[in-house]
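pinging the channel bc i need a second pair of eyes. not urgent but kinda urgent?? the chain im working w is below, pasted from the shared doc
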Amino acid sequence: MAIRTDMWTFREGIATQTVTGFEVEARDGKIGKVDEATTEVGGSFLVVDTGPWIFGKKVLIPAGLVDRVDYDTETVFVDRTKDEIKHAPEFDEANFQDAKYRDQLGTYYGSGVTRTPDDELV
């Protein structure tokens, strides 16, 4: 199942200035910092370093999940819970450009369902 392309595009009205180093807030609290951000059309995402919160795991968050950016407080707000991000597949530096990997992430985040690391991505 192919994902919607808007999952990988920043929402309208969200400026795409540099957000690297900004704090990242889920619906229910802080989850880490932006390690990397891209703004490619139809393929934008954030790599978030969750630091000690979940033992240094990095996760890839599609740009479409960015709810808003506060440049005054240097905070990116994402439209997912801490648990959803905690259970997201770990960032795969070797395959993050691969369409299948992105489809899996889009399926995971698009469902809005909290999954465990043992759940198979389809």
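so Strands lie at 23-26, 29-37, 45-49, 58-62, 66-70, 75-78. and Residues 99-111 form the longest helix (13 residues). — does that match what u expected or am i reading it wrong
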